[in-house]
Amino acid sequence: xxxxxxxxxxxxxxxxxxxxxxxxxxxxxxxxxxxxxxxxxxxxxxxxxxxxxxxxxxxxxxxxxxxxxxxxxxxxxxxxxxxxxxxxxxxxxxxxxxxxxxxxxxxxxxxxxxxxxxxxxxxxxxxxxxxxxxxxxxxxxxxxxxxxxxxxxxxxxxxxxxxxxxxxxxxxxxxxxxxxxxxxxxxxxxxxxxxxxxxxxxxxxxxxxxxxxxxxxxxxxxxxxxxxxxxxxxxxxxxxxxxxxxxxxxxxxxxxxxxxxxxxxxxxxxxxxxxxxxxxxxxxxxxxxxxxxxxxxxxxxxxxxxxxxxxxxxxxxxxxxxxxxxxxxxxxxxxxxx
Length: 338
What we know:
32% helix, globular
């Protein structure tokens, strides 16, 4: 992909799509000069195989635009908006930067993850996670990650426990910023939120509205980061899913629990359902620990060779690129992008 995008740059990039300021969006059936330019733009990146130069927004173009949206971490739509055109107009040099900094990030992947047949991977900018078993993808889900002020941490660990119907021990930061002010305003705050004091700490009892949902997945670490269910299901449909206090919320937690415990005859799907609906917390120690890596990749190439680009939600790409420039000034990999 680095070579392909360098070639695009050498051949003049992909130009600029112009759009009338009064246009709010293009929908199937519309005609415009910009439609011709959009086709040319999508041809440059291989989203379409050939350009018929039509100015008609037809179903074929819609399918191509949707493919482009998926490759760039956007929700698919039935229209082409000025915001989408603005994204298409980002110069090829910016995509080249993403490719370079993410090639560098690949060098940081721990050997045990790179060589593992069984592992879980969370990619923060794409808001996705997956589980590979015996070298094959067996599970994938959208996720919610930490917001800008409480970023999800990049690290590796080993998943060791699945906890059904968990308590949520309220972190001190949230206790001070949300819970205590809430108690001050409303003496019934704890009861309304199904919370209780235990040994000087506030915790939320198991239940459908528990902030951790019905199950959590623990890989012990100093950052106290883990995967968990969430009662806020609507967030998984949003394009930007940086909403948590740092932990990773999983859209399909039941399916993940079933997959993790698939080879344990004691934990059938029926028993998992019962444990997730119980009023008491249940810890399950995994017989085989699962390597987990939480990473940050704003550019990604999938198994079929398609490149994906994602928003740099934590604003880390530019700083890393500048470091690479400082330390690799004579390296053509970087300098050709600069």
